[in-house]
Amino acid sequence: MILVTGGAGFIGANFVIDWLAATGEPVVNLDKLTYAGNLGNLAPLEGDARHVFVRGDIGDPALVPQLLATHRPRAVVNFAAESHVDRSIHGPAAFIETNVAATFRLLESVRGYCAALDGAARERFRFLQVSTDEVYGSLGPQDPAFSETTAYAPNSPYSASKAASDHLVRAWHHTYGLPALTTNCSNNYGPRQFPEKLIPLMIVNALAGKPLPVYGDGANVRDWLYVGDHCGAIRAVLERGRPGEVYNVGGGAEMRNIDVVKAICATLARLAPGRDYAAQIEFVRDRPGHDRRYAIDARKIGRELGWSPAETFATGLERTVRWYLDNAQWLASVQSGDYQRWIAQQYATSPAAAD
Ligand code: NAD
Ligand code: DAU
After folding, report:
1. In which band, very low, low, confident or very high, does the pLDDT at 217 lie, cut at 50, 70 and 90?
2. CB-ligand 1 contact for 37 (6 Å cutoff)
3. Are 180 and 244 in contact (CB under 8 A)?
4. Which residues pair with residue 188 across a beta bridge?
5. Ligand sitting nearest the alpha carbon of 342
6. Taking the domains of the chain in order of start, what are their residue ranges?
7. pTM, entire model
8. β-pair partners for 180
9. What is the rounded average pLDDT of the residues 185-197?
10. Residues at CB less than 6 angstroms from ligand 2
């Protein structure tokens, strides 16, 4: 079996569901259930004995060794993190605590477990750190895409904390021989993404008749990857990746934010007609330190592990919008009082033109 951390969040939950469908191998799922974690994300696995959920912190120095000793996983896949850039700007402390300090404690727990394994089990064991392209900083319009050798240059508290955890993972491999792998992936979208991130926020606001807040001039570029393709990449790295290596994962789908928002409006106009969604677009004050462009060079994982994305942005967006339209109850359940407070705080300022 494998131990997945953060498996009640967006990518982690999709990964666990896909993993069980693809491999059938049991999963222990350790998640703290922060505001971003939601057992409703795991509803398709209700009653499935192959999935064991444990509520807890990756930084708990008693719980994690006990889980490892009890379940004896052949791999640990670490999704657990604070993940939203805007929240990291308002409150960086939680990002340092989870993405740096708790990740360090997780590495120590895993190091202890791995060291006590017998030869064959130790040879087979893997630790996979799920990271982000944001650690590489921001690209100019003509710059080549981020490769695995691009220097780290994180710009936000979130990306700095993820860069720190990547460095810890690298050092634990280099110094202690922990058989660790790291993936640096571009922007994900798809079912079960918390509606604080661009694509689900726009879908939710569009359907509610609320403004669609585009930061700055809307020309920031992201490289979008459907979440199911990210899950497939992680399975490939876990099975065939070489310990100590880094693999960049991306969708080859660079788009300006304003074009993403317009594509969402056009998809909604087809699937849920009745409103001029694009008329709800508003340009608002920019994110401080907003990275201009991300793009991933994913040739290494293609060449070495034979991975490439199955979805285009058009097909992935269609699936995503349909999922949100079909899951109104999920959507209502995640828009709690805390969510409303976050939205009120983050979007309190008026449109950019009024600044
Ligand atoms: P998310 O915020 O949706 O989920 C994070 C999950 O981790 C939540 O379920 C939360 O409860 C859990 N968690 C947080 N702190 C924890 C702790 N201390 N112990 C145990 N569980 C804890 O995030 P996501 O978008 O699913 O991202 C998952 C991972 O992938 C993160 O490491 C993120 O940096 C990385 N990543 C995300 C993207 C993206 O576009 N969303 C792209 C590349 C990489
Ligand atoms: O690149 C990978 C990263 O992608 C992950 O590591 C992060 O966990 C994930 O949150 C994501 O970070 P971004 O900051 O790129 O994603 P977000 O969805 O917050 O924003 C995408 C773009 O849209 C970004 O340029 C900011 C812009 N934006 C976002 C929001 C929430 C808006 O214009 N308006 C908004 O309301």
Report:
1. very high
2. yes
3. yes
4. 225
5. 2
6. 2-188+226-250+290-309
7. 0.98
8. 127
9. 98
10. 83-85, 132-134, 186-187, 197-198, 201, 213-215, 220, 222, 257, 287, 294
